[in-house]
Design brief:
Blueprint (H helix, E strand, L loop, with lengths): L6 E6 L5 E6 L1 H4 E3 L6 E3 L18 H4 L2 E6 L9 E6 L20 H10 L1
Antiparallel strand pairs: 1-2, 3-4, 5-6
């Protein structure tokens, strides 16, 4: 893949300020199975003007970005999407949390079931 300009989307942050999200050709162009052809990994999306403009950012886009979706309290005003460039090949650092079903509770549950 070579020679294609980045696609630049203008989005709004949580405070309503516009920012640019540039998507490179490595993200939006895909190769055919034999590798002879490349084509864009997007298509036209017909959406009523009342709901648009719209785009669907699927797997081809998401594999290069880390995304977090939050509905907040369920209202439209509280809905948020966080987008950041992914560190391809990175290993996530996740803290181990104690299970809500700890081993201390398990015997009590087992006794309760056995008593039935």
């Amino acid at each position: 893949v070579g020679g294609y300009a980045p696609l630049v989307y203008v989005l709004r942050d949580a405070a309503g300020r516009p920012f640019e999200l540039a998507v490179t050709q490595e993200t939006y162009m895909i190769a055919s199975e034999d590798g002879d052809l490349c084509r864009p990994a997007f298509m036209k999306l017909d959406v009523s003007r009342r709901y648009g403009p719209a785009m669907i950012l699927g797997e081809v886009f998401m594999r290069r970005f880390f995304t977090v979706f939050s509905r907040g309290d369920g209202s439209l005003e509280q809905a948020r999407v966080g987008i950041a460039r992914a560190r391809i090949g990175a290993t996530p650092k996740v803290r181990r949390r104690k299970s809500p079903f700890s081993t201390m509770e398990a015997p009590g549950i087992m006794r309760h079931q056995a008593a039935r």
